[in-house]
Amino acid sequence: MLEQQKNKSESKIIITVSGVDRIGIVAKIANILAENKVNIEDIKQSIMQDYFVMFLLGDISQSEKTFKEIKEAILKAGEELQMEIWVQKKQIFDKMHNI
């Protein structure tokens, strides 16, 4: 049971997107995730004075791509959108925020 939880946890990624708001940010990221068979499990976004921030929890367990390949595709989209994007495994994110 503990091993299953660990495997589930290893397949989760956190994506953070921030920058000046514009049309199509969520669509672009969601399309890349869909193309890579990444399931969006949770998504939160906020806009404050034309500044867009989004947090997304994804599950990569069904993807045929590696974490690195998925991350590179998302970061490329960030460059195209002129947004700052961070992609990390949820395990790392959790450990960073428990210190």
Coarse structural class = alpha+beta
User: What is the residue-averaged pLDDT?
Assistant: 89
Question: Largest sheet at a glance?
Answer: 4 strands, antiparallel
Q: Shape from CA axes?
A: globular
How would you portray this structure in words?
With 99 residues, the protein is of the alpha+beta class. It has one domain (8-96): ACT domain (Alpha-Beta Plaits). Helix content is 42%, strand content 34%. The protein is built from four helices and four strands; from the N terminus they run H-E-H-E-E-H-E-H. The protein has helices spanning 2-10, 25-35, 67-81, 90-96, and strands spanning 12-20, 39-48, 51-59, 84-89. A four-stranded antiparallel sheet has the order 2-3-1-4. It is globular, with a radius of gyration of 14 Å.
Give structural attributes:
99 residues, alpha+beta, Alpha-Beta Plaits, 4 helices, globular, disordered N terminus
Compact overview of the structure:
This protein has 99 residues and is an alpha+beta fold. It has helices at residues 2-10, 25-35, 67-81, 90-96, and strands at 12-20, 39-48, 51-59, 84-89.
What does the secondary structure layout of this molecule look like, with pairings?
Layout: H1 2-10, E1 12-20, H2 25-35, E2 39-48, E3 51-59, H3 67-81, E4 84-89, H4 90-96
Antiparallel strand pairs: 1-3, 1-4, 2-3
Helix pairs in contact: 2-3
